[in-house]
Design brief:
The protein has a single domain, classed as TIM Barrel. The protein is globular, with a radius of gyration of 18 Å. About 45% of the residues lie in helices and about 15% in strands. The chain has an 8-stranded parallel beta barrel, surrounded by 7 helices. With about 240 residues, the chain is an alpha/beta fold. The structure holds pyridoxine-5'-phosphate. Pyridoxine-5'-phosphate binds next to strand 8 and helix 9.
């Protein structure tokens, strides 16, 4: 399985002060140098974290495979067709949500979705649809002609460690297996952390996991000791 790292929250932190630190390009390069298979960013309609200039700069980096998450809007389609990221993941988007709350309803808008992805696929962009572990959504994504789906692991992540875990996990596994019998390649992500990620190995042939929040959150604590040590030295030494 491959690891795609979502660096949106590097940008969240940067935007808190409006400067350039922490630098998203440095983060993207570091993740790739450390073995991440791709860099995922969600260019949201409200640009609350990643900005247009960020995705362009990341796209310009050699060696970095960019997976652009975006809503199914004309604006985003135009951006993607110009930018030509290596991959695009179509996600639902609600302005007020804190994060992507559920999967895209492909079944409920099959014609629109099929039309939307066609030019992207024709440009050679690897298109994926972020959907819930639901057989009707998997079938609809297949009908759209995309090569990939990304299964939303949010429910499984929330249910992890509770008596609902098994049901949520089996739904993911069933949806992944069904998708694979149709010839779809399957990624997964959302809410995965250092505990619940382990069960992803029980789902055969998942291609890539896209993980953001837990990695950036852990990076704070893994990095805090060095950061304090370095500053303490500078403060104490003349
Ligand atoms: N995959 C998709 C399609 C997402 O929208 C997100 C969140 O932006 C993720 C993966 C990563 O989720 P998390 O930050 O919870 O790891």
């Amino acid at each position: 399985m491959l690891l795609g790292v979502n660096i949106d929250h590097i940008a969240t932190l940067r935007n808190a002060r409006g400067g350039i630190e922490p630098n998203v390009l440095t983060a993207a390069r570091m993740c790739i140098d450390l073995g991440a298979s791709s860099i995922t960013t969600h260019l949201r309609e409200d640009r609350r974290h990643i900005k247009d200039s960020d995705v362009q700069s990341i796209r310009n980096l050699s060696k970095v495979r960019l997976n652009l998450e975006m809503a199914m809007t004309d604006e985003m389609q135009e951006i993607a067709l110009k930018l030509r990221p290596h991959a695009v993941c179509i996600v639902p988007e609600k302005r007020q949500e804190l994060t992507t709350e559920g999967g895209l309803d492909v079944a409920g808008q099959l014609e629109r979705a099929t039309k939307f992805v066609r030019p992207l696929i024709e440009k050679g962009i690897e298109v994926s649809m972020f959907i819930d572990a639901d057989i009707s959504q998997v079938s609809a994504a297949y009908k759209c002609g995309v090569p990939f789906i990304e299964l939303h692991t949010g429910r499984y992540s929330e249910d992890f460690g509770t008596d609902k875990e098994e049901e949520s996990f089996q739904a993911l596994k069933g949806a992944a297996t069904f998708a694979q019998t149709l010839g779809l390649k399957v990624n997964a992500g959302h809410g995965l952390n250092y505990e619940n990620v382990k069960r992803m190995h029980e789902i055969p042939d998942l291609v890539e996991l896209n993980i953001g929040h837990s990695i950036i959150a852990r990076a704070v604590f893994v990095g805090l000791s060095q950061a304090v040590e370095e500053m303490k030295k500078l403060v104490e030494e003349k």
